Amino acid sequence: MALNRRKFLKESAVTGAGVALAGAAAAPAAQAAAAGPAAGAGAAHGPGRHPKRYALTVMGTTDLHGHVFNWDYFKDGTYSDAAGNAQGLARIATLVKQVRAERGRENTLLLDAGDTIQGTPLTYYYAKVDPITAEGGPVHPMALAMNAIGYDAAALGNHEFNYGIETLRAFERQLDFPLLGANAVDATTQRPAFAPYVVKTFRVHGAPPVKVAVLGLTNPGIAIWDKAYVQGKLAFPGLEEQAAKWVPKLRSMGADVVIVSAHSGTSGQSSYGDQLPYVEDAAANVARQVPGIDAILVGHAHLEIPELKVVNDKTGKTVVLSEPLCFAERLSLFDIELVFVKGRWQVESVSASLRNSNEVADDPEITALLTDEHKKVVAYVNQVVGRATQTLTTVEARYKDAPIIDLITKVQEDVVKAALAGTPYASLPVIAQASPFSRTAQIPAGNVTIRDLAGLYVYDNTLVAKVLTGAQVRAYLEYSAEYFVQTAAGAPVDVEKLTNANGRPDYNYDYVSGLRYDIDIARPAGSRIRNLTFGGAPLDDAQQFVLAVNNYRANGGGAFPYVASAKEVWSESTEIRTRIAEWVTARGELDPKDFASVDWRLTRDGVPVF
């Protein structure tokens, strides 16, 4: 079945431009044939003195995270939210067809800015349950969809590396277009490990062709977040320095237009602190610092930016950036007007806008192509693995110690204790961290399914054991407590405004089990942890603990103190989500008395908030 579909895609995909690809690991699709002559939108304004013009439209998506259909696998139903958004590549396919009909396919490019093969049970299923790496294995649903839609190139995202390099390379081989990553280099040779760029040629009647270069850049944080997979194999230098290296080369090769597809936000900030000398959200920096760029498709931050104009420091030229909302909810459009003067094409103007997936229906071609894969995953996530004695929810988990989060820490404690049995670390007490990833996760009373547990732990994190001292654990908790907004005793408490201080996301707030402590939110950050005890006695700063921690946090994600440099005594490649399912399956019953404990509470001047 997979081979027949692959044949269908290769025969049905239409390309509107010639292509030249440079760099290592070029995808097979990069050898697409050049298109025939095309006028382009307003390509020629008559003979004689009038300058020739050409209109190019570049479409872009980002942070698709495995969303093919407008379906919520965790709720087992059509996706919906308060804003009325719709998701999925099937909707994007309809929007793309509309734009191609308006502009002429031969005058368009379709790009993506990364984070494609992780994020839903659909992507997990084809990475782990029915893996694309198996001999004779399936074609990844995201490859099937993106090939059928006719993407021209995609930048690597950091989540592309979550399942290891083997899975990423298998996905790359299944694509009919290149995966770009100019700053994903071989750790030894420093040469590109993926194609840095692609050059597309657009034919214009009565004038030289327009050459459009697309440079791909990814996130340096991969070196931290997926250290277990990439250390010693790949390195990820900063976006700014790599853009400064490659953009002049593309211009010297005759590129009339330079587009950057960057898996990097615009804030100029990082979530990995000082662990790397690079900026995580560097797209605006690239626009500001590197001459020669016309537009940047932005990703990673999961924000909606219709159009952002950044002035280059050296040339004074305006660079246009756009970030479509994640999960295929929006499509960015860059409309680029060129004029042929003094023997060369020059970019006259660039504008950006968004189109909304909720305004169209699913493309029937994508629906027909991927219905079988979708049904397999729906059946998988609805498998019953146990029964819950009561409903558990994350609704209040950000500001109250919720039993549903204690389930995560209990599973992690049990797994690490079993793993360390018989080792020199077996005598150390095991504590565990977990974050309230979702505000809407629920495990209902009665049958518990895989999707219930997957909705609780939405990331594909794995488990690591690190040794920390009591003093280091105290500092860890203080850093975590910065998540709460300082609220004076007696002041009204609005739970919707109580958390996410300084933009701290929910996934960077940690519970730590096995201890007892108060978080006094009336006090300034850095001095909030009060009454910290272990085993009923004040915490001994010299006491050693084994912290059961997810790999994102263990490698420095969130910039929590000490944990990244702490001694690692054990790790594994099985997802924490899978461990939770195994734990529930082994017991058959999910009863809070087996895992729930009150480890922490919020206070103000010693008085409980709730």
UniProtKB/TrEMBL annotation:
GO MF: 2',3'-cyclic-nucleotide 2'-phosphodiesterase activity; 3'-nucleotidase activity; metal ion binding; nucleotide binding
A single GO BP: nucleotide catabolic process
Keyword annotations: Hydrolase, Metal-binding, Multifunctional enzyme, Nucleotide-binding, Signal
One GO location term (cellular component): outer membrane-bounded periplasmic space
Signal peptide: 1-32
Keyword Signal: yes
Keyword Metal-binding: yes
InterPro entries: 5'-Nucleotdase_C (IPR008334), 5'-Nucleotdase_C_sf (IPR036907), 5'-Nucleotdase_CS (IPR006146), 5_nucleotidase/apyrase (IPR006179), Calcineurin-like_PHP (IPR004843), CpdB_N (IPR041827), Metallo-depent_PP-like (IPR029052), TAT_signal (IPR006311)
Boundaries of every 5'-Nucleotidase C-terminal domain copy: 384-563
Pfam family of the protein (one): 5_nucleotid_C
Domain Calcineurin-like phosphoesterase per the UniProt entry, residue ranges: 57-302
Cofactor: a divalent metal cation
Localization per record: Cell envelope
Reaction(s) catalysed by this chain's protein: a ribonucleoside 3'-phosphate + H2O = a ribonucleoside + phosphate; a nucleoside 2',3'-cyclic phosphate + H2O = a nucleoside 3'-phosphate + H(+)
Protein family (similarity comment): Belongs to the 5'-nucleotidase family.
Protein name as catalogued: 5'-nucleotidase C-terminal domain-containing protein
Organism: Streptomyces mexicanus
